[in-house]
Hints:
elongated; Arc Repressor Mutant, subunit A; 26% strand; Rossmann fold; alpha/beta; WH-like_DNA-bd_sf; single chain
Amino acid sequence: MRSLVIEDEPQIGAYVSRLLGQLHGVVDLVGSIADARQALHNFKYDLAIVDRMLPDGDALEVVAALSQSPQRPAIIMLTSKDTKEDVVDGLNGGADDYLGKPFEPQELLARVRAVLRRPRLLAPAVLSLGNVELHLGSNEVVVADRKILLRRREALILGALLMRRDRVITRAALIEEIYGFDDEIESNTLEAQVSRLRKKLAAFGGDVEIRSMRGIGYILRLAPPR
Length: 226
């Protein structure tokens, strides 16, 4: 899952980003409408947390545009503009939920989980191939009936590969899915994480293989019989 936090107060933005990190996905943080538009142009998001009043305008226009998108994310407005009229404007403008500041962190997470459960955004709870099952929204994978707790990036890599089982995913596309745009990535970071994931799956008897397609990317498929 990839989330976008649109918040111009750095401390609040960082705090909300850390909270959303508990949902085991990638979180991008921007502080203006212009930066939000750029992020939305570059990435597909499952969730947007939007502060309303930003340095370059009212983010309600961003919410309205998002709500009309064919692949719209879940949208929660998180703002100090919380009069009854503000809430009505936000919901009528396309937000799925509206929460005033200050807010309780567990309430925000509960509202996030609620909007993500709505049918428009439902996804399979488990992705599987062979004897490997990844439980989405966690770092838990079952390999040959044994549970393994993966690192967050490893789980994101496995999820991306399972979503495209038997198809090549380019290195660039995989990086885009598992890293935020502010993350610093060394040249061999992805390869090292894929290598660790391979070793863990093999150590527990996984019957799948992650093949490197030199100069292109990776493909996940059933391992040939031994």
